[in-house]
Amino acid sequence: MALLITEKCINCDMCEPECPNQAIAMGAAIYQIDPARCTECVGHYDEPTCQSVCPINHTIISDPLWQESNDALWDKFVRLHP
After folding, report:
1. What distance separates the 2 farthest-apart alpha carbons in the chain?
2. Which of 29, 31, 52, 73 is the most exposed place for a label (fewest CB within 10 A)?
């Protein structure tokens, strides 16, 4: 499943440069994650880097509207990084 940045975001700019898939960009008010590009760092790291660098707990969560299996995340990683 892709990740989602909640309204707790303080726009600290920590997550965007850490995303290996370039899935994070500034939205109208807070950063947003493009679910089509988010692999939860599968293929890159053991855990999502955006979550690990975010200074506010529970700001970046699993997106309940974008459910994907680990296999689907791997397939997305392969498509994004041929």
Report:
1. 34
2. 29
Burial profile 20-47: b = 16 or more Cβ within 10 angstroms, e = fewer? bbebbeeeeeebebebebbbbbbeeeee
Tally the domains of the chain.
1
Query: Is residue 3 within 8 Å of 62, Cβ to Cβ?
Result: yes
Query: Which of 73, 68, 72, 60 lies closest to 33, judged by CA?
Result: 60
Whether the model pTM is above 0.90: yes
Residues 31-78 have pLDDT tens digits of 999 999 999 999 999 999 999 999 999 999 999 999 999 999 999 999
The boundaries of the domain holding residue 26 are: 3-80
